[in-house]
Amino acid sequence: MNIIGKNIKTIVIYGTVLLTLVASCSNNFLQDTNNKDLSESVVFGADATAIAAVTGVYDGLQNDSQGDPGLPNEYNVKGIFKMANNITLDWQDPSLREDSQFFDFDLNPDTDIPVKIWPNNYRVIGRANNVLNNLQPAIDAGSISSDLGKRLIGEVLVIRAISYQYLAAVYGDVPLVLTIDDDPFKGRDSQDAVFQQIVTDMQDAVNRLPWSYDGDRGRVSKGTAYAVLGNAHMWLGQYAEAVTAFEAIEAGGVTSLEPNFIDIHSVTNRNGVESLFELQWAANGDLGWNRNDEVNILQLFAMPTDITGGGGFTGIPTKELYDSFEPGDLRLRATIIGPGEEHPDPLINIIDYEGIDINTCGTVEEPWVGGTPDQRTGYWGVKSWRDPNIDGWGRTVLFGNQGHIWIRYGEVLLSLAESAFKDGQTAKAQAAFDRVRNRAWGGTAPAKTVTMDNILEEYRHELGGEFSLWPVIRRSGEATNYIQSRYGVSIPNGHELVPLPNSELSINPNLEQNQGY
């Protein structure tokens, strides 16, 4: 399970947790350097080093470019991003449909999503448990200040909860390991038990965290904790409680919708007013051995192969998704461009890329499909294609620092609409639903009555190409009907869940595979 051992030195060496003093007024606080041979008394003996230890917990979510020894890399790109989008069938990899494990809903336990999500999140959980084991004793001993220690505990509880909510959303029942003394080879706890633990932890965390920070961006806040709390209540069917949690976020006075949808993912708008949790990255150009591991490669993997000379490995939108948007919905061009269309970001001119002599995504007559037409759709996602400096394989810049927004307020409002709808608060549901749609039209959207199917379609158009679409669809209890109605694909019994990786089953005899795999 990759749970980290008791000694803080294990965190430092095993995870290459990079313990560094955090610079103020920075949105790159997750960049750090490795320091070995640090004991608990040193790490938790002062405010600055305790902050750095918590930075190591965040760092576990950044395993994207090269990874730690023994752990699969490209966790964000081929694990979280692919899970959130490809399972919905609106986004695909280069496989022919008839050969795709996604269109069969029969994922191989040894492929990207199962293999990358489980060990990386348990790595984060192990680090979190180590830090939680040491923070309160350090506060009690006067080694770190009480107010700071209280906040740091809240941060770690939220990061651990985010890891657990992905694990439970993807695999269902998973082992709850909450202390350094828990058996790392225990069996699976129920999905409900996981989300109940998240509720307990987030009720604690909201009382520990600030709404915002003076300098550091990217740290979890009270708003992040309320969003995770509301999500957990929804998984438990506690919809009135979810409404209360979601409504608390805007009352904090910090978070709001971006006025223009296109601005949410702009590289000039990192950590914007809508962002509730965003992974921070460093800019780093090539594949050299000395690159750091706080860089991401999602844009290169999703850009057209005609530009990059490679890539196109994941996040290729389907024509079905493109055609599903209503006329006038501005989210379409901010999510997908098709043959003959220009990139919507004013920073990006397609003609500026080396070897490209048109300013459109191919042409209608000759769409950029790459390979054969059945393998590339001719449509390309643009939410993660916003950095004009990234140019492609064999050129100069492969990695970028565009943030990965895992939780944002547009999703919260749709979750509020769903919770209120299921709780019988129809007027409140309609109001939240309309706010999201009105922003999507840049003013006033065509009237549409709030229903469960319409809410699911809004999730589809609001969150496609991001990091949470499949979990919210599965959370709704409508996943099988959703896929059947949009693609005519029947999900085999139990296959709304992802299989556990065979590597974990071979290590832990107390784990059992998910049904049907």
Describe this structure in words.
The structure is a single chain. With 517 residues, this protein is mainly alpha-helical. It has helices at 8-14, 40-43, 47-59, 75-86, 112-140, 146-171, 191-205, 222-235, 239-251, 298-302, 305-308, 319-324, 409-422, 426-440, 452-463, 469-475, 479-487, 502-507, and strands at residues 91-92, 275-279, 316-317, 336-337, 380-381, 404-408. Helix 5 (112-140) runs antiparallel to helix 6. The chain is globular, with a radius of gyration of 22 Å.
**Low-pLDDT segments, ≥5 res:** 2-37
User: How many individual β-strands?
Assistant: 6
Strand content range: under 5%
Mean pLDDT: 89
Net shape = globular
Span between termini: 20 Å
Output the structural class.
mainly alpha
Radius of gyration: 22 Å
Measured as a percent range, the helix fraction is: 40-55%
Largest sheet: 2 strands, antiparallel
H and E order: HHHHEHHHHHEHHEHEEEHHHHHH
Q: Going across the major beta sheet, what is the strand order?
A: 1-3
Number of helices: 18
List keywords for this structure.
mainly alpha, 3% strand, 517 residues, globular, 18 helices, two-stranded antiparallel ribbon
Concise structural overview:
This protein has 517 residues and is mainly alpha-helical. Helices cover 41% and strands 3% of the residues. Helix 6 (146-171) packs antiparallel against helix 7.
